[in-house]
Write a structure and sequence with these properties.
It comes from Chroococcidiopsis cubana SAG 39.79. With about 400 residues, this protein is mostly beta strands. The protein has three domains: about 35 residues, no CATH class; about 270 residues, Acetamidase/Formamidase-like domains (Jelly Rolls); about 60 residues, Acetamidase/Formamidase-like domains (Endonuclease I-creI). It contains four helices and 24 strands. The N terminus is likely disordered.
Length: about 400
C-alpha cells in the first residue's frame, strides 16, 4: 500500500507537497506548490525539485580557469538536476599570483607569528594551488581561480537558480590579505612608500575558527573570528564580453563579495544561458564590509551547494537570503547608484512580500534597515540591504 505524507516548508518559500512512495519504498513522485518572493512581483512558482544526489568536484587544472569567467560555449564539468548537491573544491589565488614570488616562501615568511605551531611548511601548501600555478594559464586580467562550470538540467533564460550554501570546510591552515598599488579604497596612498604590494599571511585555526593576524611592529597577535563564505558565485553571462574579467560582479552574480552568503544562505540568480553554467571561486575565511585593503582573508575552501531551479520566478538582479533576513543587492560602478539600486530592491521586497506601500517601506528603511557597503574594490561596487524577517508581522 502506498504511503502519503503532506508537509509544509517555510524558508525562502511556502510550499505544500505530496510525496508518494512505491511498494519498494522509493520516492516516486513529488508535487509542490510554492509561493515565492520575487523582486518586482510575486507569482506562483513551481520549484523543480527532484530526489537529490551529491557529486564531488575537484579543483584540478582541468576543472578551473584563471582570471576570467566561463562563457556560453564553455564545456561543463558536471551535470546536475534541481535538488542535487555538489561538494566543490575552490582555490584561493593569494600566494600564487606573480607579484607574490615563490609560493612556498611566501606562505612560510609572510607574517605568521613566530610560533613553531603556526609556521607553514612546504608539506602544508595546498597542492592544488601549486598545480594551478604550474599548469593553468592565466587567461584574464582578474586574479581569481574559478571552479566549474556546472550544467543545471532544464535551466533556461528567464528561470531563477537558487544556490544554497549548506556547509563550508577549510582546506589549508593559512590565508592571506593583500593590498596592491593603485587598488583598494585608498589607491595611490597605500601600500606605503609606493611599494607594489603588501601582503600578510594569516594562520588559520580551523578548530577554533579564528585567524591569527600578526602586526608588523611586534604588537600582540590579533585573533579574527572566521566566517567563511564564497565571494564569487555566478551563472554564465549571456554577453561573453561580461566574462572577460573575473573581477566585476553583475546581474549574473560573480564576484559579489557579500559576507552574509555563508553557511545556511541562499543566493538567487537570473539564468542567462541554457543550463545556467554555475561556477564558484574567491573563497574567504573572513571579510569586513567594504574590503578596503583589496582582499580579505583569502583561503581555499570546500563548500557544499544545493541547486534549486525556480520556474516562472521573475528576477532581474541577484538576491540573497539567510534564515533571518532577505538581502537586497545593488551593483554599480558608481557607489551612489549602487545604493539606489539596493534601496529599490528593498522596497520591492517589502511591497511584494509583506504588502507595504513603497512610500511606507522607504520610511521604515530609514529607521530599521541597514544598508552596508559590500565592497568598493571590484570595479563594480556593491551595496547590500539586510531586511530582518522578524521585523514584519505575519498575518
Amino acid at each position: 500500500m502506498n504511503k502519503q505524507k503532506i508537509f509544509a516548508i517555510a524558508n525562502s518559500q511556502l510550499a505544500i507537497g505530496i510525496w508518494r512512495w512505491n511498494k519498494s519504498g522509493r520516492l516516486a513522485i513529488a508535487i509542490g506548490l510554492g509561493l515565492i518572493l520575487l523582486v518586482g512581483t510575486i507569482s506562483i512558482s513551481v520549484p523543480v525539485i527532484a530526489a537529490g544526489r551529491t557529486q564531488k568536484i575537484l579543483s584540478t587544472p582541468a576543472n578551473v580557469i584563471w582570471g576570467e569567467l566561463f562563457k556560453p560555449d564553455s564545456k561543463p564539468i558536471a551535470r546536475v538536476k534541481s535538488g542535487d548537491r555538489v561538494v566543490m573544491e575552490t582555490i584561493s589565488h593569494e600566494g600564487i599570483l606573480p607579484d607574490q614570488g615563490d609560493t612556498v616562501r611566501f606562505f612560510a615568511q609572510g607574517g605568521i607569528p613566530k610560533n613553531p605551531k603556526s609556521t607553514i611548511s612546504r608539506q602544508q601548501i595546498l597542492s592544488d594551488q601549486l598545480q594551478t600555478k604550474a599548469k593553468v594559464k592565466k587567461t584574464g586580467p582578474g586574479p581569481h581561480v574559478i571552479t566549474g562550470p556546472v550544467y543545471i538540467e532544464g535551466a533556461v533564460p528567464g528561470d531563477v537558480l537558487e544556490i544554497k550554501t549548506l556547509d563550508i570546510n577549510y582546506r589549508s591552515p593559512y590565508g592571506a590579505i593583500s593590498n596592491r598599488h593603485g587598488k583598494g579604497a585608498l589607491p595611490g596612498e597605500y601600500p606605503e612608500n609606493n611599494a607594489p604590494i603588501y601582503s600578510k599571511v594569516i594562520a588559520i585555526d580551523a578548530r577554533r575558527e579564528v585567524g591569527i593576524f600578526q602586526p608588523a611592529n611586534n604588537l600582540p597577535p590579533i585573533e579574527i573570528p572566521l566566517k567563511p563564505f564564497i565571494g564569487l558565485m555566478g551563472v554564465v553571462p549571456a554577453n561573453p564580453a561580461d566574462a572577460a574579467n573575473s573581477v566585476p560582479p553583475g546581474n549574473y552574480g560573480g564576484n559579489l563579495d557579500i559576507k552574509l552568503l555563508g553557511r545556511g544562505s541562499s543566493l538567487y540568480l537570473p539564468v542567462q544561458v541554457p543550463g545556467a553554467l554555475f561556477y564558484a571561486g574567491d573563497p574567504h575565511c573572513a571579510q569586513a564590509n567594504g574590503e578596503v585593503a583589496l582582499t580579505a582573508i583569502e583561503c581555499s575552501l570546500t563548500p557544499t551547494f544545493e541547486f534549486v531551479l525556480h520556474k516562472d520566478m521573475k528576477l532581474a538582479t541577484p538576491m540573497g537570503e539567510t534564515k533571518d533576513a532577505w538581502i537586497a543587492v545593488g551593483l554599480d560602478k558608481d557607489l551612489d547608484e549602487a545604493m539606489k539600486k539596493s534601496v529599490r530592491e528593498y522596497l520591492q521586497i517589502a511591497n511584494e512580500k509583506y504588502g507595504m506601500t513603497k512610500q511606507d517601506a522607504l520610511m521604515l528603511g530609514s529607521a530599521a534597515i541597514d544598508f552596508d557597503v559590500s565592497q568598493v574594490v571590484d570595479i563594480v561596487k556593491g551595496i547590500h540591504g539586510t531586511i530582518p524577517k522578524q521585523l514584519f508581522p505575519t498575518k
